[in-house]
Amino acid sequence: MTKAEHVDVLIIGAGLSGIGAAAHLAKDLPSTSYAVLERRAVSGGTWDLFRYPGVRSDSDMHTLGYRFRPWRGTVALADGQSILDYVRDTAHEYGVDEHVRYGHHVTSAAWDSTTAQWTVTSRVDGETRTITADFLWSCSGYYDYDEGYTPEIAGRDRFRGQVVHPQHWPEDLDHTGKRLVVIGSGATAVTLVPALAASGASHVTMLQRSPTYVISVPGNDAVKGRLTRLVGEERSYSLTRWKNIVLQSALYRVSRARPDLVRKVVRKTNVAQLPVGYEVDTHFNPSYDPWDQRMCLVPDGDLFAAIKDGSASVVTDRIATFTETGLELVSGEHLDAEVVVTATGLNLQVFGGTELSVDGEQVKPHETMAYRAMMLSGVPNFAFTIGYTNASWTLKADLVAEYVVRVLKRLRSTGTRSVVPVRDESVAEEPLMDLDSGYVQRMVHTLPRQGTVAPWALKQNYLYDAARLRTARLDDGVLRWS
């Protein structure tokens, strides 16, 4: 039998998180051997998979960009291709692309305490392959790449048009001159509607069951432009990044402390950008408080502009059934459509579907507790990267990478073979994510739990995490080194 290949660190996923994790290893632990296993044939993760019209970031790029590599320019909400280029350029600059193995669908990972190693099994071109590693790092995000979420809607077989989910947008779809209905009100829907309206559709209707908070932001960061002229690209990136971090954190804190105030401010800005007499309270005034679900950002108010010029509209109602020519609503209204886009959300998937086991015992994620929202109780030499739900994903991804590098340095310098968070059974449990969004609520029971006290509690606060994670003692009485 051929001996399995071995690396010091094995990263699963070559998207924004995985490329960032590998770049941290390359620059901070250059003598570490590592490999990145990527299921798809190319890198980029989300930013290569999603190809729907107008696909863009829903966080500003000066915080979505890596801390160690500036996002150049003033564009705040960038298009998908620009983000993909940025991720791949980062991989090339740090030599990460030479360590990525494509077409590797990781199915299982087994920890053996006697050897202090992981054995990771993948499917490659229909064959099974294994690789061993001292440390395993899951950077596969938290949603299912195979299928997005589409609710059951009566009468779908009767519809003579085309039904499309944004996660798998057909390259040959021609929507020119057609009437489209986009079902949904989240970040994908508010991106699609103005993009489709501006690219030849006859009319686009955003059909939502209930409203979402939608905020217009400048498409370009004027402050970043001025700072760049004064202090150069790298320093202006750092300053703009901190400016945006502080503003995001302040908005979130005020939203939680004074929800009625934030609701009034958002409503006032919406009214100013919509037609006179528009039914703002019907279509843009949610029943829940700000940041109970993620807020949607629209650059330069493009969604409101499309509504104002008549190329798009919003309908708030429930679907009764598909018909041959569109959708019949509970109210009795009929929406004519030749293409229906189900921007109805994602399916969560823990660790990309990889089955973990420790010494022959299957790890059930929902029975574990997340240590600092990046390691699992009872699972040695394992880390995972999941970004913030109330701020840019990469802010947390960078902090996780910095912390994992500290852990790896400690393992190496002390000759220690393994490290595992040991759970305190007296710590009460809470859900890992506290958003009311449907994609979270459908699958929150499958996720690891968080605790009510540090280091088990998840703050969703970058300023707090940046201060704590960069100074936290590794000998904290929770991590067991052996």
From TrEMBL:
UniProt keyword Signal, yes or no: no
SUPFAM superfamilies named in the record: FAD/NAD(P)-binding domain
Protein name (Swiss-Prot/TrEMBL): NAD(P)/FAD-dependent oxidoreductase
Superkingdom of source: Bacteria
UniProt key word Oxidoreductase: yes
Family: Belongs to the FAD-binding monooxygenase family.
Species this protein is from: Nocardioides baculatus
Keywords assigned by UniProt, alphabetized: FAD, Flavoprotein, Monooxygenase, Oxidoreductase
Cofactor entry: FAD
